Structure formats: structure tokens, C-alpha cells
Queue: 2 jobs
Job 1
Amino acid sequence: MIVWLRQHVLALAGAFRHLLRAPGSFSLNVLVVAIALALPFAGLTVLENVRPVSEQLAVEPEISVFLSMETPRERASALAPQIRRVVQESGNTGRLEFIPREHALTLLKNKTGLDDAITALGENPLPDGYVLKLSGVRNASDATRVETLAAQLKALPGVEYVQIDSAWVKRLAALMHVLRLALLFLAATLGVVVVAVIFNTIRLQVMTQRDEIEVCRMFGATDAYIYRPFYYTGALLGLAAGAAALGAVALSLHPLNDAITDFARLYASEFRLAPLGATATIAMLATSAGLGLVGALLSVRRHLARAP
Amino acid sequence: MIAHMIEFRHVSKQYGRGSAALTDINLSIDKGELVFLSGPSGAGKSTLMKMIAVMERPSSGTVSVNGEDVGRLNASGLPYLRRNLGLIFQQQSLLNDRNVLANVMLPLLVIGTAKADAEKRARAALDKVGLLDKAASDPMALSGGEQQRVSIARAIVNRPQIILADEPTANLDRRSANKVMDALKAFHGVGVTCIIATHDESILASAPRVVYLERGRLVDSPAAESLQGAA
């Protein structure tokens, strides 16, 4: 075990030594890989920022249940238990609020500023109604369930019209799905680029260390002993490039946020793009190092396989 | 039955469709022996030595080291055989990117020896070949003879059972050649089996056992023209 650990330390030190021996070449390789990694990292950062916003928006979609004008107030009030039962049976949860037509008119006046025009109508054109705020609706499947619920509510006696706002939830969910797929495709494509760059870097390093490899084999070095420094080199290269890419994305958020803040204020929002959290950052660094390791593994297998 | 340290049984080696490098070699070398391989250039001396180190494999026949058929060794078993061998070649194959001490430490680091211990043993090996004062030197700053002695120090630092030296005195002046041979004989003196390929007549003159090769075959004694050609 001690020998094994010692050999890993030796391999890691060897990898550092070889990388630092040619700092210019190392920096250029890091730059190329970092550029390839920066795009998916930036995409992930945007998605990670948008995801909580979209979830927050989708938390309480509303269903407005408008009763017919002929429905007396007593019957309208008595409809609440029936609506609750339908909601419960459909597997949904939410808050139900009765909105008397007088209150609805006041709200309309306050919100629209059309006080004079509404007063000119003479009588209240609005019916009694209910507002049902559903909870836990997060995706297109949930939105479909909401539509079924709306149809059931419309079938209740005295209900004239039911308005749901699940369409935008479906659209947002679909958009997020498309964005995730696009990001996944981009990440996979650029991942291949990263592997190819590191594959070639390791190939060149194998060529420059050919003599050392031969001498080590002559004195009984195992394949693992010979391959290990190249694995570490690939992983270190990936790690350094990942860190550079994350740093570049984090830096680019500052000027971007200035523009986003101005735009968000128009919609009374405080939305800003934040860098990836600690867990996501660690995951991205591990992915970068992993891609580097894969590139090194493939290159070593291709260029250092022992002759039969 | 006596087990030989190294045994060639009906070994032949052919490269593609070209002429045979070795033909039907039968040879036994015992533990602690000092054996010189001689013959003209292209006689097959290097090929024979490379077969012991499994740098070449026989086309037919078997090569055994310590009773084990090394021709059958797979990639994972090969390193452990080589750890028992000390290899010295005409081209010293010293690494230019590190000093003499680091070159000699290499075989020990390869097998996982702690750095401090490796350094201590490498210094001791350099001391044995009279080059301790050159430990910090760049290998390229040394003379050919000194480089060859560094190669010897690197070959013996691992305390191998067998030393294989291929033309260790080639391109060296007489004084340097003698120093190299003295160093090799010293290791033979402590029980290490030494196989040395050379066509240096002055060395062969005092050799306890000489194996002659001509055109890939073992011969009892060298033909006169071969000696002239080798000289």
C-alpha cells in the first residue's frame, strides 16, 4: 500500500514536472480546452439561474371558476365544498378563495384604472367566482392534470366558464426541456473536442518521453508505472482548464448582470445571474478532470501499448 | 538434474523472410558465471542478450531464466523478470534531463523504493564505480568511459542476479575500457552472473569462458577471418 501510494505521489510529481517544464505549451493547451469548456459551463450557469425562477413561477398556477350570472349567492357560496372535493379527487392540492362579484369589480377598477368606464356601465357585469391556486405544478405532466381538473370543474352545476393558466407552464417546461437538450448536445460535442485535444497533447508527450519510457521498461517498470504520469497529466490539464473556464464564466457575469438588471427592473424583478454553487462547481471541475483522464487513457492505450 | 541460471534450447530467431539472426542455439550458463560472447558484427550477440531480457522473443526453441521459460512471459510478468537483470548497452541510454544521481536512482524508483533509500543506494553504486564525485553532474558532461560506468552503476543499483553488458567497452580508450571491465568483474566477484558481449581481444584473452557466435550459430572457436573482421 505504501509503495502504491509512493508511486502515485511520484507520478503526480512527474506530471507536474512535465507540465511546468513547458509552461507556454501547457498554458496554450489549457486555453484551448478552457474555451471548449466555457460554452457548456456558461449554458449551465444560465439554466441553473433560470430553473428556480421558472419553478417559482409555476408553483401556484391559478384556475378561475366563473359562475353563471343567474346563480344565487347562497348556491354560489355552497359550491366551495364541491370544488374542494373535485380538487382532492383529482390528486391536486391548492387554496380556494371565493370572490364575490362586488369584490371582483373593485379589484378590476383598482387594477385597470378604468374606474370611469366601469361606472358608466351602470351595473356590475362580473359574476361570482372562485380562484383556485394549485400547488406543486412543475412540469408539463402536472399541467395536463390541471387541464383535466378544469374540465371536471366546468361540469359542476352553476359553473359558466373555467379559465386556466397552465398553457404557459407547458410552454416554459417545453422550452426548458429544449434548452437542456441543446446544452447536453453542446456539452457532448465539446466534450469530444476536449478529449481530442488532450489525446493529442498526451501523444506529443509520449513522443518526447520515449527514451525515458524505454529505460524505465528496461529496468522493470510496470505498465501502470509508465502510464500513471500521463493519466495525471491529462487530469491536471482538464482540471486547470475547467477552473479557467469557470473563472471566465464567473467574470463574464459581471458585465452581463448590469444589462440584465436594467432589463429585469422593467418587470419589477431583481433577477441576476449568479455563478454556479459549490456543488455544481465541484461537479464541473470533476467532469473536466474526468474528460482529461479519458483523453489521456485513450492516448496512452493507443500510443503506449506494449508490443506483444 | 542441474538447473542452470540461463538456458537456451534449440533457439532460432528469424526476422520476417530475411536471414536467420540465430540458428539452433543450445547454451547453458550457471549462477555466478562470467561468460563472454564474441563474434563478428551481426553474428547475433545482441539478439542473444536481448532474448534473455525478453526484448526479443525466439522464433522457435525456449529461453529459460531461473528455470522459467521467459518466451512465454506475458506483459504483466515481464517487469518482474527485468528487475533481476542489470542491462548495460553500448549506447548508454542515460537520460539527459536529469543528473547522474537521478539516472542511477531510476531503477529503484521504478520498483517503489523510498526516495531517501534510493538516493543512498545510488550513491553507494556510484561509489563502487568510482564516480561518486560526479553525482550532481549532467550525464552529457561526462566522458564516454564515465558514462558507461554510470550505466554500470545504474545496472547494479538494484542488486540484480544477472548483468547483461552489450559491448560495454566499445568506443572507449584502453584505460576507460579497463576501468569498465574492472567494475564488471567486481560484481561477478560477489556472485552476480555476468554475460558480456565483446570482440575486444585483450579482454577475451583472460576470459574464463568465451562463447563464439558466427552468422547466428555457436562455434567452437572463431574463424581467423572473423577475428580479423572483429578487430
Job 2
Amino acid sequence: MTTTPEDDDAMPPVSNSTGQNSGAPPGEINAKVQDAIGRALKAHYDDLVGAPVPDRFLVLLAELEAKEKRDDGETS
Amino acid sequence: MSDKHIASGNRASLDFREKLVAEIPSLRAFAASLSGSMQQADDLVQDTLLKAWGHADSFTAGTNIRAWLFTILRNTYYSLYRKRGREVQDTDGIYSNKVAVSGGQESAIDLADFRIALAKLPEEQREVLIMVGATGLSYEETAVICGVAVGTIKSRVNRARIKLAELLGINSAEDIGPDRTSLAVYQPGGHKALMTS
């Protein structure tokens, strides 16, 4: 993968519609906003992590292991 | 069976299977965040587990198995699954059907709103934001997984946050409700007047 030039460039300016935001300067993000995004990100991810795991994966791994044991038995 | 044979591969140890099983929830969450589809996520996880099993010898014991598996999953996604666009095109479950599922209680941003915004990020930003912000992977590990410099990861994370704030309309602290438990983004000037009438 190649690194595009923009990756290392300065941040694009944040549009500041009201002009009176007590926030961070352009290109940076207010600490409270960042904190809220961080918590939302965790909520999103943890919700997915907490979903029940379908049996198909456990079955698949059990089958792979069983097959390997069979193969080992044949070769030893 | 000789000792040499037992030591010949990671697969030989039951431990390896247990490690894979333990990572399945994280793999699904990452795959769903990448693809926006739970069904595609499960296909991706299945491919990842098969490849991981087949290439168990390339895993270095003692290193972070999550980083190793994420690398496999991510490569599989970009080589086989990725659609033309850079945004999540079609959301079959995680962003639409499950929006009623809470999780938003601890955040000042509604989870459903957040997922819609997250899906709109360019995928190179979305993936690093998830890895760094939610999975417990370090910037360094994320950089190795993505094959770019740490500075590039930091840059992408920063741009992802700015873009999300923009999409969610929360460019300043005033745009976020003062109450940590508030579910919705605070609407400035909303219905305050009604309270005094």
C-alpha cells in the first residue's frame, strides 16, 4: 500500500459555522467532542463484540482440528 | 509421535484453537465495522479462521494474536470483499436493524446516529479509528497491520474524528449535551422557551 501525500500533510481546516465555538483551533478537535466520539466508538464496538457467536465457527475449528488429528494418525 | 512433530506447528497445540476462539467476537466486530454487513462479516471471519489455521506456522508465539488475525482479515477484505466505493454501501444489519439496541447510555451521541456517520467515513479512516479507538491495538500495531507509518495512522485517526464530529454536527463542546447520560445530541436553542412559559 502506498502512502498518499495528503496523509502526512497538515489537517484540513474544520469548518466552524458559528464562528464562536469555544473549541480547538482549526485542524484540532475539542477534548469533550473527542471524548464523546471515543465513548460512542466503544459503545458501537462493544455492542458488536457482545453479540452471540454463531456455532458455525466453533464447528469449523473443531472439524479442522479433527481432520488434523486424523491426518497425524495416518502419517505417524 | 515424536517430540519434533509435536513442536512442529502452532496448530499442534490445543492452545492455538482456544486463542482463535477467544478472538472470534473481536474479529466479527472489526469485520462488521469494515464491511457494514454482519453477513459479510461472518464470511470474512470464516475465511480468516481458515487462513489462520492453514498458516498457523507463520504466527510467532508470544506476539499479539489479535494483530496477526486482524492483518489476515483486513488483507482478505481488501483483496476479496471490498466493494468499489469507499463508504459502506449496503448495511444489512448492524447499522439498520439493531439501532434500537442501546449502548448509547454511556455516550452523549446516539449510537444509531454514530453508526450512520461511521459508515460514511472513507474506509482507510474508519478502519484505523476502530483499531486504535476500540480494539485495544496500539498505534504501532495498527501501523504494522495497515503497512503504513505510525504518523500516517495518527493523521488518519485525527481526520476521522474531525469528519465524524462534522457529520454528527458536534464541532464544539456546546453541541454535546451537558449530561453524560443524555442519549441525543443536544439541539441548541431547541425547546428551552417552553420550559419557562
